[in-house]
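Hi, here's the filled form for the chain we discussed.

Project: internal
Contact: R.S.
Residues: 74
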Amino acid sequence: MAGMVSLLFKYIVFGPFQDDIKDLNKNFKTLNDNLREIRISVAELDKRVDEHDRRLDRHHERIKDLQNKVWGGN
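And the returned structure, exactly as it came back:
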């Protein structure tokens, strides 16, 4: 008897929520996929920023060298 009540409770109370739970799981999967793509994009942007930072350092050194040549150094 308790098993019957349990099954009825499961299907009557939780039955209507099954589609909502499936939709929620699908949305979580989509969010996780999007987060993974964002992390990859951020990692790629970090690499680009690092490269630009190195290039900026090289340009700064070249400008200092040119200034030293033009103005005779410090």
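Let me know if anything looks off before we file it.
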